[in-house]
Structures are given as structure tokens and as C-alpha cells.
Protein 1
Amino acid sequence: SAVISQKPSRDICQRGTSLTIQCQVDSQVTMMFWYRQQPGQSLTLIATANQGSEATYESGFVIDKFPISRPNLTFSTLTVSNMSPEDSSIYLCSADPSPGDGYTFGSGTRLTVV
Amino acid sequence: AQSVTQPDIHITVSEGASLELRCNYSYGATPYLFWYVQSPGQGLQLLLKYFSGDTLVQGIKGFEAEFKRSQSSFNLRKPSVHWSDAAEYFCAVGAAGFQKLVFGTGTRLLVSP
């Protein structure tokens, strides 16, 4: 199965600033997915990133707050913009290189906004 | 719309005892079903998946799950729990064709000596 390298693994940021999270997959994938896991909660999908087109955002998430780039078939970034303490969460990326493999997840980025 | 219910928020099992974690799903077509485990401070690791075929699925670390369409369930089982199994377990449902996953709220497994 694919391996996804995600960085940074954790960060502490000041409110009002932005953080960009990177995910690198060791194989080409059609779709990449970005999830948020708030403290003690389950995973919620933020957006789906398809190479060559704009990301598709879930209800409650907007591009201005969570801009996503997908420059090629192995890489994606998620930016958390104008951060507030409510953005403190774990952010995870995911991909499914081929049907039947099962979705692989990055190790997550633990973000704390102070 | 897809949804997943994990009715047990916490479960405590004695080491060496058997384990069953419940998962019920709602989905209009044949679902793709997954179980993931998340250890503290870690990402998600795929334990097993069901797409089609044999309804009893074997996974890693001695886990298995059984798909029961009539009950819309995909319960996770392990015959003998080890202390290292203490973690958060998530059931998820998806559709074919690189679609998103919908996760349950998770079950936290505690293992007592």
C-alpha cells in the first residue's frame, strides 16, 4: 500500500497566522483527501483534491479558510489561514492509490493555536 | 447519505479476553467498509477492509470483521486482546471510485491487566 509523508507533525501557532501542511505520496494517486480531527472527536472531511482542478469542499469548510493546492499526482498542501484557537486539531491527509488497497493516511499534523 | 454508528464510546477488556467492537452503517448501495486504529498521538492505520466477496474479513494484528448486510453491521473482533491493542478504533464507510470516507465517532479500547 502507499506511504504518505506528512509534515509538520506538530506546530504551535499564534492566532491570526497561517500554517501550510504538506503531504507527499510515494505513488501517483487520483484523489487526495484532507480531514480534520478535533480534540476527542472523529474525523471530518474538509475537502477532496483532484490534480488539475479546484478542490471540492464539504459543507462548513471554505476555500478562503482552507486553501488547497494539488500541483501533481503525488503532492498536496492544505493551508489553515487566519488561525484561531478553534482551529486547534489534528489534520490528516489521505489517498487511495488504487481500488482495493484501502485508504492510507498520513501521520497527521497536530496543530495548537494560542 | 452515508453514516456510521459506533454505539460504544469506551470499552474495557481484560488482557487475554475476546473483543467485539460494534459498527452499523447506513448506505444506499454496496458499501466499502473499513476499520482503522489510532494509537495516541499517531495517524490512522488500516486494520482491514471489505469490498465484496467473503463476508468474514481477516486483517492485521489478529483482527477480523464480519459484514452482515441484513443487519447493516461490520463488527470488529479479536479472540484474545493484548495490552498493545489499547487505542481508538474507527469504523468507516465509503463508495467505489476514490470517494471520501465517512467515519464513526470511534470506540476507545482500554485493556486491563
Protein 2
Amino acid sequence: DTAVSQTPKYLVTQMGNDKSIKCEQNLGHDTMYWYKQDSKKFLKIMFSYNNKELIINETVPNRFSPKSPDKAHLNLHINSLELGDSAVYFCASSQDLKSGQWYNEQFFGPGTRLTVL
Amino acid sequence: RKEVEQDPGPFNVPEGATVAFNCTYSNSASQSFFWYRQDCRKEPKLLMSVYSSGNEDGRFTAQLNRASQYISLLIRDSKLSDSATYLCVVGSGGYQKVTFGTGTKLQVIP
């Protein structure tokens, strides 16, 4: 059973287009994330949601808009795609924290490889 | 200074060798530390958490040095299947917000 799934796996599109990436987790987790991994393999947090509420919003162009219809889904919509948006986008999820915890293991989806031409 | 820094490598080691990676972090208030592993064109996966007292999981040993602000990962008796990129991960601010290092690439050679 797939724990964190993303669609599509590959996305090739022209500059200026608008595209969406979908993410779903069946782990019952309350927190979900979007990360961007660039060509230098640097993995950087973009957004995170806890129970459908935005809690982390890093310095990301406002062309990127996350949406969480429920706690099992976190989608990413990108407007007016640019060449620099080409990267692998990973969705991840983690359990809510228990008392005394600071962080939990994050489970990643397989990634969406976005190429902007 | 980057929040989390790692030597990118690659580290090319023969099978059976012992190899160690270090990672430094800049925020002295950091609370949680992890090593993740990422295979080529795959997603990162948790390898192990790093505890203050140090911890071991089979051939893997992780250590934390808060005074010098670094964590380390030691791999003994390297296997071909250990070839991957090892990501140092530090939690230091915000709800479950962690920062990933750029990774250290390990290649184990037959």
C-alpha cells in the first residue's frame, strides 16, 4: 500500500502555463509538507499544513499556492511557470506531536519531476 | 553560514570499509537531529534519529556534539547497498520544521 502518493510523477510543460501537483497520504497523519529539490539536490521546505491549516510558508513566490481540502490531501498549484521552477517536488507527511516531542519522522512521496521548457 | 552544512563528497570507499560523515549546524537552539538516506532518483527516507547520548542501529552509529554543534554518522563494514546520499536533518524552529543539509554522497566500490 502506498503511504504518500503524488501525481503526476513527471510533468513537462511550457513556460507561462499553470499546473497542479496532487498529494495524498493514507497514514492518518495530521501534518503535510511540500519540498522543492533543485538540480544541486538541495531539499528546501516550501509549505506545511497541520489539519488543513497553513503553518509554514517559506519565502516562495506567490505563483505557488498550496491547498489542503482535508488532512489527507495537500495539492500544489503553480501559476505562470518559469524555467527556474524546474525541480523535483516532494510531498511529505508526519504524525502530530505527542507531549515532549519536537519533531516526528517525515514520510516522503516519490516526487514529481517538473520540467519547464 | 548555512543552517546545516555537509561535505558533498563523493566518498568512494571499498566494500567492508568504515566511513564517517560529519554535519555542522548553526543554530545552537536546535532540538532534534536525524539522518535520512536518499537513493538516486528516489525520495528521502529516515535512516535514524540522533540522540544526545549517541545511538547505534546495526552497522550505523550516530553521535551528537552539542558543544561543537555537529552530528556524525559512522557506517561500519560498508555494503554496496549503502551507496546513496546521506542527508543531515536538523529541527530548530517552527512546528515540525526541519532543515535538510545538501547531502553527502557515498559510493561503495566492489
